[in-house]
Design brief:
It contains 14 helices and 15 strands. The protein is an alpha/beta fold. The chain binds flavin-adenine dinucleotide.
Length: 432
Amino acid sequence: MDMAVEAGVIKQHLIDPEICIRCNTCEATCPVNAITHDDNNYVVRADVCNGCMACISPCPTGSIDNWRTMPLVRAYTIEEQLTWEELPAELTPEQLEAAGVSAEAAGDPAAAAPALTQAQAQAQAAIDPAEAVFNSAQYGATVPPWSAAHAYTNLFPPKTPTTATVVGNFNCTEAGFDSETHHIVLDFGVVPFPVLEGQSIGIVPPGVDAIGKRHHARQYSVASPRNGERPGYNNVSLTVKRVTEDHEGDPVRGVCSNYVCDLKVGDTVQVVGPFGASFLMPNHPRSHIVMICTGTGSAPMRAMTEWRRRLRKSGKFEGGKLLLFFGARTQQELPYFGPLQSLPKDFIDINLAFSRTPGQPKRYVQDLMRERAADLAMLLKDGGSHFYVCGLKSMEEGVVLALRDVAKEAGLDWDTVGAALKREGRLHLETY
Ligand code: FAD
């Protein structure tokens, strides 16, 4: 029998609440649903985590990679973890010994990898692959496309933010409507803050939360290309939706989104990041980009489109196809509706879906994808095609299912295609 289990010791997997940026990547990635969260923290269920490490490399901050040797009976519960503001220290050898764990068992290398507890083994045995619910997250790549540029990450971690100055802020949805999304431009001056299309940054709102704790940073995708919102300047743009109701539709004033939307030119903000090393665009000639987004999920798509537009203008780069599926409740709520219309048709193929246009049937991005099945099937067969999905969490499953159905109808084996898209960094999912 494994000495670690015999002695009742586990190497418990924990998330550092001081560094975690609450991006949900770990929870979305975990294949056994061991990770959960509340408004305060992301936490790991000790009796479910099997130490498979699938969550480690996608984590943008490294906050996921924390382990504590614990007597099995004293493993931290998720209720405890949800209240933490910092990680507890390792138990000392004396404390472990007092809990009945011998130094030999505590130091056993077998304990370094969490051993399956009986509960974990039972939970896993109970999963019948045939009955498993479709899990779209399993197809999301955790590696970038082979031709992606190198992404710098965590230059300013959550504990040491930098300062940026607001140099632009305007409503990029139609004025006079309840739902408002702002285009914000932040300038970093001489502070090195290199970003690539697809990366995100964190904004730390000032003040404290209801229990007097400093607000944690909220993440926003960069909406500008790598050489700046204004080419050659050290600035980035963001697309921020003012949160005025929660996911249930009840009125609420989102802390950070309202802070950002109300910023004035000349104000300064605390920024952390950049984050993200896999949702990056391909840079090789003739590579195709399929962008599927809703609402502010358009931010990284705007960044990639604008970079390709600038390359095309230079005449030195032969881009492949750019295909956009973009959804919003109404045309008035669709960020950048006006500028999108002026992009040349031979540059980008734009498909818009509105789900709440009065008098019109509801249309979602996945409906558009099914309508364009023949074109998508061609792209699925082409190893140079890259797929990006960003926006509402609720869209993710429908979009990946639509891709699967398109593949199947074209006679492709989805298991093979889906696995290749993931392995080759060609299907990226970022939903929140
Ligand atoms: P909070 O004060 O944190 O929340 C207030 C209440 O509203 C809570 O009940 C909460 O559950 C609910 N709520 C939170 N977000 C939403 C929402 N979107 N819709 C409805 N209810 C909500 N947001 C953008 O606007 N643009 C982006 O480009 C963007 N990129 C992101 C990229 C990543 C990787 C992630 C993880 C998130 C991204 N977000 C983006 C979401 C953003 O980080 C914040 O969650 C969002 O702005 C709400 O923060 P808040 O402080 O205003 O609301």
